[in-house]
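Continuing the batch. This is chain 6 of the set; chains 1 through 5 are on the previous pages. Same settings as before, nothing changed between runs. Recording input and output for traceability.
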Amino acid sequence: MTKEPHERERTSPRSLAGRTALVTGAGAGLGRAYALALARCGAAILVNDISETGAAETVQLIESIGGLASAAVFDVRDGAAIEAAVAAAGPIAILINNAGIDEGKKTEEIDEASFDRMFDIHLLGCFLCGKAVIPGMKALGGGAIVNISSINGMIADDTDPHYNAAKAGIIGLTKAWAKELAPWNIRVNCLAPGHVRTPATTLRGSERMRMVSETRIPFGRYAEPEEIAEAAVFLASDESAFITGQVLSPNGGEAIVGI
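Output for chain 6:
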């Protein structure tokens, strides 16, 4: 007799042993932090990035802590490449849809090509990766998709309106998938971080800009990548077995006061 998902025996709610996770945009920054955190819990990681060097470095870091990983270099806008990578890896139990960009542009500076690129990488990329892994998750009897949005998808910044809109779209996609895929025990949630200290944020803004931003955060600082990664592990693991269609925003209270 087949057991219901909540009746299955589990060694640990955080153990991801025996599961393969695809993490997109994992060649650096938050994507790398997600990949390492999942690997520490026993998942085998398919490390995606458009940078072959970045993906290889993340694989090496995972292997250095005793984890299992392989690189998958593809553009998340390329559906055929995604399908091929997923087919080669076997069924994916966990998908972290992290790949993304930002530009720091105002409306008048954004042309149609820039707008399309922003939506294609963030929203189309999420959709295509999800579409590729969903059949395998159904065959496995369940899975977890964590779509990475941003606090900017909930509380708009005064730059990058196309980024804000794309991140809001990811929240909408998350809720739609959660409802559609629940009968197959596929949980779909959204992680919407606030400001995080990564190489990208360091390069994008001056130290003075960072200090001004931090004064608006009740905790008085940016998050560390590992703190956000812990939230992703929670949503990917059996600790959140009855959670779907939700938006978790680790932001140090930033959403309380706006940005």
